[in-house]
Amino acid sequence: MTAPTLRPGGRSARVQESIHTAVRELLEEQDRASVTVPQIAARAGVTPSTIYRRWGDLAALLADVAMARLQPETESTNTGSLPGDLRAWAEQYLDEMNSEPGRGMLRDVQASLKPAYCATIIGGQLQAILNRYPDQPNPGVDRLINLIAAPIVFRILFAEAPLEVEELHRLIDIALNQ
Amino acid sequence: MTAPTLRPGGRSARVQESIHTAVRELLEEQDRASVTVPQIAARAGVTPSTIYRRWGDLAALLADVAMARLQPETESTNTGSLPGDLRAWAEQYLDEMNSEPGRGMLRDVQASLKPAYCATIIGGQLQAILNRYPDQPNPGVDRLINLIAAPIVFRILFAEAPLEVEELHRLIDIALNQ
């Protein structure tokens, strides 16, 4: 029998993961404003000081969790066509950002030290889609961010109603036909 | 000699204006995080309780001032052409939002009770421009918001660098050529 390999990095990563999981669970169960560090610590099985030592305060921890959530767990849908893939990605992005956790995430990311990471992550996802169709002309990642991601987020933050799916499809067509 | 007309609404409006002015001045002079209600009250010549009674707290007052600042003081430049007017409007909007007071304003508006007022105000400004050219085909205010205002704000909040003016001009061309 081999003893399990214990690495400090591994333990540290597991502690972080249990704290992130506790935050995600609590955010689903209760109002964001009522979540506290002692509550998270109890759920994660650590002491509050572990959290304060690593993140400093609750806002920083929430921002860190929000950042981690920006990273999608799975590759975006491959529909077999560039417009189809962009529609699938954009519809999912609209759904996620327009949800209560998504809106909370947009707030937390802005409060974090590196909100610009947001465009980097989105850019990576869109580039991965473009890479599936190397022979097709495309407008580039920056244009796609400007025409697809920006209106989705802007309308969630600053308008009465979210972007409608019909307009989202039109914007994708506009982006691809330039 | 006629006694000056005293209306409660007039006095109330003057008090509000002096408080707004005090906030605007203080935000130009010092770091936003260091501005306090007693400081604003002293500058405006009112008691702190006047501010607390009317706005509740500092965040609500800052949000209210931010909202008021969204309303432009002057009509946007009339260049004689629709693309020219949109460029003038968009370049000014980019400049203002990308400034330190502009970024603070975007934060304050989100913290306010009616951030959606933001798109309404922008829509009104863009509609006023479209109204100057009733005989020209145009994409409508919503499309202009999606293609011009949204990328400006999204990149300020979530990207490494603001939108470049060249890309802004391209987006205006795209919006007008649909």
Provide a descriptive summary of the structure in words.
The structure is a homodimer of 178-residue chains. With 178 residues, the first copy, chain A, is mainly α. Chain A folds into two domains: 8-56, Homeodomain-like (Arc Repressor Mutant, subunit A, Orthogonal Bundle); 74-176, Tetracycline Repressor, domain 2, CATH 1.10.357.10. In chain A, 70% of the residues lie in helices and 0% in strands. Chain A contains nine helices and no strands. Chain A has helices at residues 8-29, 37-44, 48-55, 58-70, 82-98, 100-111, 117-131, 141-158, 165-176. The termini of chain A are far apart. The interface between A and B is medium-sized, with 28 and 28 residues.
Question: What descriptive keywords fit this protein?
Answer:
mainly alpha; 70% helix; 2 domains; 178 residues; disordered N terminus; homodimer; Tetracycline Repressor, domain 2; elongated; Arc Repressor Mutant, subunit A
Largest sheet report of chain A: none
Most extensive chain-chain interface: A-B, 28 and 28 residues
H-E order of chain A? HHHHHHHHH
The DSSP helix count of chain A reads 9
CATH homologous superfamily assignment of the largest domain in chain A: Tetracycline Repressor, domain 2
Structural class of chain A: mainly alpha
| DSSP strand count of chain A | 0
The top-level CATH class of the largest domain in chain A is: Mainly Alpha
End-to-end distance of chain A? 63 Å
Number of domains of chain A: 2
CATH fold topology of the largest domain in chain A? Tetracycline Repressor, domain 2
Quaternary structure annotation: homodimer
Strand content of chain A: under 5%
Q: What is the approximate shape of chain A?
A: elongated
Corresponding CATH architecture of the largest domain in chain A: Orthogonal Bundle
